[in-house]
Fold:
Amino acid sequence: MLYEDDSVQIKLWGVRGSLPSPLDPRDYRSRVHDVLKSASSIWKKEPDLSVEDVYSRLSPPLAGLVGGDTTCVEVRSGDEQLIFDMGTGARRLGYDMMARGQKGDLHVLMTHTHWDHIQGWPFFAPGFIPGNHVHFHSCIPDCEERFSRQQQFEFFPISFQDMMSDKTFHTYEQGDAFKVGSFDIQTESLIHPGGSTSYRVDRDGKTFIFATDTEFYGPELEDLIEEKKSFFKDADLLIMDAQYSLKESEQKIGWGHTAMVIAVDCAIEWGVKRLALTHHEPAHDDFTTYKLFEEALEHNKQYGDKLDLILARQGDVLEL
Structure:
């Protein structure tokens, strides 16, 4: 079972950007075909291998899924928990929390309220449980009103107020710091339409930063990277928006997202130890996403492989 000690563990419940993108039946058929073909080739050369041995030799795009749920990340250490955003990944997180009997005070840190970051909330089972107290932390003055609007009767049959947990909204200014249990948390504004907030979490000398929905691009890129350096500097783990290819970032200036290779540049300049690339483009299938990741790995080689580079996949657990 996860989270049995006081180490800090981060579970990715949703890594997709913009909208949920479940595996299409045609993609599934193609995936099964490629798995069978690859496995057959491996067994032909080494017929005594077990199923698990063959599975371990499949290429990463064939051995698992990147995942189609939108942004939701859980940080846990012992009995303490933080939740970042309420995308559709929050539904599975909620079921998991119910199964392990977690209840009481829950802390949700919101980056912003675009649909792909809030649409899992009405399906988050702990939000319906009397006695649970959900604390929403954000730099959004009208955050409660936004959550309520999402559940107007025209759009959803159960109102925000009818969900039986207690709910408290804590509002900060960009740049403010606050504390949740043993977690020291610092906020920082990001470049995104309508605004977005990054969170730096420090605990026992380890630093985790969540920075999704942000755009690093353009002629002032170097200045922007330098401007944000004091916030991102020397993080042990940075989970960062990396939705686009470089060409897409050129075509979608102002859309508020970053190319994978530029995320690598940022992390190198900031002295980050590990970088997990997330908020994957919904129009990209897994093979396209892995191709962009391979380009990021090649780009990292130009820096002498200084970064431990990770492709964020739904269900992965990262440890500080």
Remarks:
- The domain at 9-23+65-319 is CATH 3.60.15.10 (Metallo-beta-lactamase; Chain A).
